Amino acid sequence: MRNDTSFARLVSLACHDVRTPLATVHGFAKTLTRSVELQPPADRYVEMIEAASAQMAELLDELSLVARIESGRYDPGLRETDTLTLARGAAERLGDDRVKVTGEGSTITTDVEGVDRGVSALVQAALRHGGLDEVDVVVRGAVIEVSPITDSSSAVVLGLELRDLGAAVAVKLIDFLGGTVEVDDGTLTIAFA
Prior knowledge:
Helix content: 55-70%
Strand content: 15-25%
Radius of gyration: 18 Å
Shape: globular
Number of strands: 7
Strand order of the largest sheet: 2-4-5-7-6
Order of helices and strands: HHEHEEHEEHHEE
């Protein structure tokens, strides 16, 4: 058996190795926030370090996931969830004032954690790259529709133009799990198998 030295494997290894020092930074920032009464502006700086290290951990999770998919080493832990719950999770993360959710969901079996992050990433990409203040998310059973999708954001949201890691990983994940992500007539359609 040969050693796996593929790029995807190296990315996966790097993500693993970076997690330990990142956890140290995040842990000490949390400790300082909870145990020491810091004066301005130091209190704000520590909060920024804590938030940035949490964001970096999420980015590492995304990179690790796509590396495992690309190298054929991804083995999803499948569980049941409801598509309306996924849509509401995106609204909760991004703000109910920015993401309006309507419709009725259905139960799907999927990698709940990964797909939950993925749906949020796709909605966030629609907002960010479309220059939008608000999007509508309509849930129709095993399908989630996001609109409007602007002409300028369509390729980014579909992962065809690599400017948004979260959206690109979400598309790969949903495709791997047997679903589809498409844009037609200004609407992003996320369909689950």
